[in-house]
Amino acid sequence: MSTTVSPSTPAQAPPPEDGPAPQSSRIQQLGAAVLRALLTQRIVLLVVLLVAVIITMMTLSARNYLTAPYDLSYMSATLISAVPLVMLGLAELLVICSGRGGIDLSVGAIVSLTSMIFGFAYGEWAWPLWAAILLAAVFGGLCGAINGFLIAYIGYPALITTLATYYAFSSIAIVINDQQPISSRPIQDFFSAARSVPVGAGGNALQVPLGTLTFLLPTAVVIWLLLNRTTYGRRLYAIGTNDVAAEWSGIDVRRTRCVAYIAAGVISGLVAVVTVAQFASARPDAGVAGNGMALPAITIAVLGGVAITGGIGRVAGVVLATLLIVWLNAGILLAVPGNAGSQFQLFALGIVLIFAALLNGLTQRKYGRTG
């Protein structure tokens, strides 16, 4: 008598139990994603830091730790110092993105020399305002063309070239009018271009410096369109990433790099007009007094995510980095008044630059070229 043995049914795996392990894994994945976003997306990091600075300063102000209220009115008023910083930061964005150690130490000297040229044209020669502004832009572009020709076509290192032209331009600015500023009546009246205008309706309108609307925003929009919506922008990023490969693909590397320095000079010429309006005087040391304008502009560009090796950089990063520096410095002046506050500003600027450099290095090693 035979017995039929039915095949055995394979054992079913027990259903996974909900417990702390999967929940902990999800938390770790979320933390890793947030960390990656902060490290690789400079815009995200800058927004977080900017919000942290604003909340910290407003909290200190509410508890009367500051000498004056840190509110929206105060923050909008401090934007007057952001106008030249953002514009020169965008100039550095262009030249650094061009690669091959691109940098421009002469932007402050171009501002000084061009402000004197603008002062002569508008304050002494009685040129129309639009013609004097056009002359400033063209003259700044000419100074940038000298840098671009020496760097792109002759092959001189950008650091040495722009350091040499920094000394040359700043010296010419001093001797061109016998070390004297130009403060004629038209130049003094031009101070109205630096006034604040109400933005908003009713009693909640904020007083925003006019320069942010007439110079800063147009410049930022034009540079954004140039980099993101034109063939030139794609070529600039290409030569900054690998200029040999770009040349083999048919890109005129030298001309593309030279145009970046010309554009930086044009922006510096417009900054000269802004500084004349702010000072109500065309000063021969407008862009080189103190620590100058070049080093803060480079700091802002690096903090904004512009890779010093070239090929990476965004307009939004430069703008957010400038707001971070300006509003942090504004809070420091209220927390530490007097000359000590200015020294703490320089200390904070140095710390921020070291932080940006370390962050760029960490991101490069951990995630590769990201921006």
How would you explain this protein's 3D organization?
By secondary structure, this protein is mainly α. Helices cover 69% and strands 2% of the residues. It contains 15 helices and two strands. It has helices at residues 20-40, 42-62, 72-77, 82-97, 107-124, 129-154, 158-175, 185-189, 210-229, 231-241, 243-248, 253-279, 294-303, 315-335, 339-367; strands spanning 196-199, 206-209. A two-stranded antiparallel ribbon has the order 1-2. Helix 4 crosses helix 13, helix 5 packs across helix 12 and helix 6 (129-154) packs antiparallel against helix 12 (253-279). The longest helix is centred in the C-terminal third of the chain and has 29 residues, at 339-367. It is globular, with a radius of gyration of 26 Å. The termini are far apart.
Notable traits:
about 375 residues, mainly alpha, 2 strands, about 0% strand, globular, disordered N terminus
Roughly what percent helix? Answer: 55-70%
Q: Which class of secondary structure composition applies to the elements?
A: mainly alpha
Count of helix runs: 15
> How would a textbook summarize the main sheet?
2 strands, antiparallel
Order of helices and strands: HHHHHHHHEEHHHHHHH
Rg from Cα: 26 Å
Assign an overall shape: globular
- Termini Cα gap: 80 Å
Beta strand %: under 5%
Count of beta strands: 2
Uncertain stretches: 1-6
Mean pLDDT comes to 87
**Strand neighbour order, sheet with most strands:** 1-2
Write the layout of secondary structure elements.
Layout: H1 20-40, H2 42-62, H3 72-77, H4 82-97, H5 107-124, H6 129-154, H7 158-175, H8 185-189, E1 196-199, E2 206-209, H9 210-229, H10 231-241, H11 243-248, H12 253-279, H13 294-303, H14 315-335, H15 339-367
Antiparallel strand pairs: 1-2
